Amino acid sequence: MTTATTDDRVRLLREIQSALTAQDVARATVLAREALDKGIEEPFVLNLRAYWHESEGRNTEAVTDLERAYSLTPTDIPVINALGLAYARTGRMREAVRAFDGILEIDPNFAPAHFNKGWTSEDLGDLDTARAAYTRAAELMPQSADPAGHLAALAARLGDWPAARAAAARALQIQPRHALAVMALAGAEIAAKNFAAAEERLTLLLAGTSLSPAERARAEGIIADLFDAHGHFGEAFAAYTRRNRLLREQHRLRYASPGIETMPQYLAWLTDAFAATAPERWADIAPPSGIAEGPRRHVFVLGFARSGTTLLEEILARDPDVVTTQERDALSDSVREFLITREGFAKLASAGRGALRNGRSRYWLRIQEMGIDPTGKVLVDKQPFNTYKLPLIAKLFPEGRIVFSVRDPRDVVLSCFRRQFRMNASTFEFLDLMSTARLYDATMRAAELFRSRLPLAVLELRHEDLIADFDGRMREVCDFTGVAWSEGLRDFAAAQGRRAVATPSSAQIRRGLNDSGVGAWRDYRAQLEPVLPLLAPWIERFNYPNA
User: Fold this and answer.
1) Sign of torsion, CA 348 361 262 65?
2) How far are the Cα atoms of 303, 460, 488, 520 from residue 515, in angstroms, in the given order?
3) Which of 373, 408, 430, 529 is the most exposed place for a label (fewest CB within 10 A)?
4) CB contact set of 109 (below 8 Å; sequence gap of 6+)
5) pTM, 2 dp
6) Is the distance from CB of 246 to CB of 318 less than 8 angstroms?
7) Contact assessment for residue 380 and residue 299, using Cβ atoms and an 8 Å cutoff
8) How are beta strands 457-462 and 378-382 bridged, if at all?
9) What is the pLDDT of residues 139-151, one digit of tens each?
10) What contacts 205, CB < 8 A, 6 or more positions away?
């Protein structure tokens, strides 16, 4: 690095500003890199080099530059906004939301921060916050269709079709072919069984050339739902497959590049490490002493995605003495310490009371950050993927209760393949039918091993049994979890309107208790044929009929 003279500094900064005034961003970034190479470190110059890094696909380097710029000028709104967007591009959504909140502390009426907080909060599953942020953004930027379009898409995700129609209409008044608004209206037409109208909207949308890959994938998913609702199951499966291939290509570098550990690979070594650990390491685990925090009863609801965990959470949440996490993760700190590497897992197996006390404290801190006060209540921590974390749960919370939700494996695998999830290492596997079945098999194998050795109280709940005998099975669940049985638990669908459900189950829950998804796999029997041998042991294990 050469050190710039004062004249160099003045000249370069003046030339950068001139390039920006002329809207010649390419030249401005070249000059910014030259300035930084000469030690001229200014926030807007770092911001320009970060932009160049992003254009070259180096998002981590962009974050580094923007964090440095932020340290130099912590009240510069363009820098903070760019940093929030850079965090989002690297999957650091919580930090992105904090960045946008920081902008709003400086300027509560900065519309882009409200909008950006909306989609990052939505990605995190905090849908109530997302809806409020989009609403405020729409008020502050009435000339833009994007806030209303995202409100329409969010309402469609929740199955709130009147709200979806109203928001879509507002967006289309501003931008007549706004993709999210058109798709929300198509979803509303499908829900109303106006299949011809839905098909017309989607055909016109897909005929255009302006759709992003993400928008095209979303549209293919809605077309698949249209075919399914119409009883054209072969065409539906083909459309779901096209949607998933588009999504797989979008996320392949992050989750399937050479050297990236896939979820099946992770589960393989985790299961092997657990099996190789002496059983006494997991026996007679006592909770750390001297801990005053915590709920009256601590319940973990897990199993596998699309197995009925969200339904159970929403039923239990009807009780005013129950608080729930809504699939937000409070175990992440201890997962990073104990469950990412073999060395960490060995530490978990031999962890003393001090380490466990720290892990519990971090968990309760995360619960507090979610705005949840579990004192004196029943805390329901619902996250199906926490099945992978059962050894950690047993060590940190041996007093916890586990409700293990089960559903016909064929319906589970088909539903995971059909629905669109927030992308992570597990849900990436759902983009291929065989990968979904393999992950299900690996997860159930791990669960069987964990449950056989860990001293945890477990209640296995079949989704179909809950639907067939709601009162009987929920009384059993209530006895196990310490929740008081009441007739009001049956009103979960009405209560659900008070908060947004972030999972793909949201629309079904709004319809109340029904058996519409039971046995749905039979409509796709031919397409499921390749994975049925892999699922056969679990069909038998959970007592489902072979046909």
Assistant:
1) negative
2) 20, 19, 20, 10
3) 529
4) 140
5) 0.84
6) no
7) yes
8) unpaired
9) 999 999 999 999 9
10) 177, 179, 182, 183, 186, 211, 219
